[in-house]
UniProtKB/TrEMBL annotation:
Upper classification of the organism: Eukaryota, Metazoa, Chordata, Craniata, Vertebrata
A GO MF term: metal ion binding
Compartments it resides in: Cytoplasm; Nucleus
Organism: Leptosomus discolor (Madagascar cuckoo roller)
Alphabetically ordered keywords of this record: 4Fe-4S, ATP-binding, Cytoplasm, Iron, Iron-sulfur, Metal-binding, Nucleotide-binding
CDD domains attached to this UniProt entry: Mrp_NBP35
Superkingdom, taxonomy of origin: Eukaryota
UniProt name for this protein: Cytosolic Fe-S cluster assembly factor nubp1
Job of this protein: Component of the cytosolic iron-sulfur (Fe/S) protein assembly (CIA) machinery. Required for maturation of extramitochondrial Fe-S proteins. The NUBP1-NUBP2 heterotetramer forms a Fe-S scaffold complex, mediating the de novo assembly of an Fe-S cluster and its transfer to target apoproteins. Implicated in the regulation of centrosome duplication. Negatively regulates cilium formation and structure.
Length: 255
């Protein structure tokens, strides 16, 4: 998935306890597999239209969400669209959703380098995107795809904030031994980042509670505040914020 800037920067952290509260927009651009409504606990919600455009669905007062999932009659409905129809909806989401005054726009994109990614880069080119956060798992079959995504970012001149290695080891809650569920046979994300000269933002270990929280539409950070994965998430969030703040500062100096 990718992170894109509107107004100031990008952050996963908005609204969580102990953090400064920002107005955040979360745009689910995985048109064929919209999972954000389920993960945010918003399944079954619908989009309402007003004179100022589509109104997002709110998780909290400061967190609004828009997804094609809100436009489907059932979560099991398949979205079978060709490129032009996808591009039309992406443009509509970016142009016609009444987010109000927001600090951050987070866009969750599908894997790959297809219509959704090209359209987003094109339509948001004037917004000076902070950059993309690229997610991988440690095994080579995943890294192969991620190298293509990094190459895509370079070709379209999209800055890369960094790479996150997900499912990076598993610590047994009983015996505390660590296992490599997805062995990093070629060195994992760390080696890839060194070779390609991009930042490794952090590694998120496997925690079954993450999947449970997503299925229940609950905040994992609230449900498992002591988990090593929570600590990893917070460190990654801080690094993303620091990058975006620096990017914004540099833009102000240029202006």
């Amino acid at each position: 998935g990718g992170l894109w800037r509107q107004s100031r920067a990008v952050s996963f952290a908005a609204g969580w306890a102990g953090w400064v509260v920002f107005q955040v927009a979360l745009l689910d651009m995985d048109l064929c597999g919209p999972s954000i409504p389920k993960m945010m606990g918003l399944e079954g919600e619908q989009v309402h239209q007003s004179g100022s455009g589509w109104s997002p669905v709110y998780v909290e007062e400061n967190l609004g969400v828009m997804s094609v999932g809100f436009l489907l009659s059932s979560p099991d409905d398949a979205v079978i669209w060709r490129g032009p129809k996808k591009n039309g909806l992406i443009k509509q989401f970016l142009r016609d959703v009444d987010w109000g005054e927001i600090d951050y726009l987070i866009v969750d994109t599908p894997p790959g380098t297809s219509d959704e990614h090209l359209s987003l880069v094109q339509y948001l080119s004037a917004a000076h995107i902070d950059g993309a956060v690229i997610i991988t798992t440690p095994q080579e079959v995943s890294l192969q795809d991620v190298r293509k995504e990094i190459n895509f970012c370079h070709k379209v001149k999209l800055p890369i904030i960094g790479v996150v290695e997900n499912m990076s080891g598993f610590v047994c809650p009983k015996c505390k031994n660590e296992s490599q569920i997805f062995p990093p046979t070629t060195g994992g994300a760390e080696k890839m980042c060194q070779n390609l000269n991009v930042s490794l933002l952090g590694k998120v270990p496997l925690d079954p509670q993450i999947g449970k929280s997503c299925d229940k539409g609950q905040s994992f950070l609230s449900e498992a505040p002591e988990s090593p994965a929570t600590s990893s998430y917070r460190n990654i969030i801080q690094r993303i914020q620091e990058y975006c703040d620096q990017h914004h500062f540099q833009e102000e100096k240029i202006i």
